[in-house]
Amino acid sequence: MNNVYNNIQRVKNSIQETAEKYNRDSKAIELIAVSKTKPVSQIAEAIEAGQLAFGENYVQEGIEKVHYFQQTNPNNKLIWHFIGPLQSNKCKQVAENFDWMHTVDRLKIAQRLNDNRPAHKGKLNILIQINISQEESKAGIKPEQLPELAAQIMQLPNLTLRGLMAIPEIENDFEKQLATFRKMDQLLQDLKQYYPELDTLSMGMSNDMSAAIAAGSTMVRIGSAIFGARNYL
Ligand SMILES: *Cc1c(COP(=O)(O)O)cnc(C)c1O
After folding, report:
1. Which of 30, 221, 222, 232 to mutate to test the pocket of ligand 1 (most atoms within 8 A of CB)?
2. Ordered DSSP codes for 184-230
3. Cα–chain-centroid distance for residue 12?
4. Percentages of the chain per state (helix, strand, coil), in multiples of 5
5. Ligand 1 midpoint to CA 119 (Å)
6. Residue 19 burial (CB count, 10 A)
7. Atom of ligand 1 nearest to the CA of 103
8. Of all protein residues, whose CA lies closest to atom 10 belonging to ligand 1?
């Protein structure tokens, strides 16, 4: 039996059930299959299950996969999300190969993505990463820095700011997960007063997907529940 195929169905069912439970429209919750460290053969299995959106964390690995599927199926409808930390010297590769960038946390990165976005690719979709658990070691901006960075990104013509993203600290208690994700939802609602077109809240992983959906996530990033455990992060 095809494992990845079944896992995709299971995760989709779970998204649907959770959405119903919390009075959300499941069509407003997109599944991003996080394929980092996993081979193209497993991505191909996910595609067979109807999955089109994939998340990658490492620039080199990600673009190898993008190119592989471009070569094997030039008309593919795959959507590639960059969800890892990004150094400014690799912005060009992300701008040239990805459709979404989830982890913008400073103007310099946004500017380089903007300057290197090829015209034929259309605008790059941007999410600002928030360090919502206020962890010292974590990437992302502080909530108070959000209005300024959002205003700056809005000025960049080759980017479309779509919303916010977070990776909260690992927490197994549902109520605590929910409280953190609600802060993210509130930040997006506040920002939407200025930019009503914002429509994306990227939050929820294999371990906290239900709480993220309950709090308003529109994009869940699921890796291990689809592709199995990873040997490294
Ligand atoms: C690895 C990763 C995921 C997926 O994590 P799982 O726990 O395997 O679902 C989601 N988002 C980001 C940013 C990641 O790095």
Report:
1. 221
2. HHHHHHHHHTT-TT--EEE---TTTHHHHHHTT-SEEEE-HHHH---
3. 17
4. 45, 20, 35
5. 30
6. 19
7. 13
8. 221
Q: Which residues line ligand 1 (CB under 6 A)?
A: 34, 36, 57, 83, 167, 205-207, 221-225
pLDDT digits (tens, 9 = 90+) for 83-111: 999 999 999 999 999 999 999 999 999 99
Total-model pTM:
0.97
Measured from the Cβ of residue 28, the count of other Cβ atoms closer than 10 Å reads 13
Residue 224 CA: which ligand 1 atom is closest?
8
pLDDT tens per residue across span 146-184 = 999 999 999 999 999 999 999 999 999 999 999 999 999
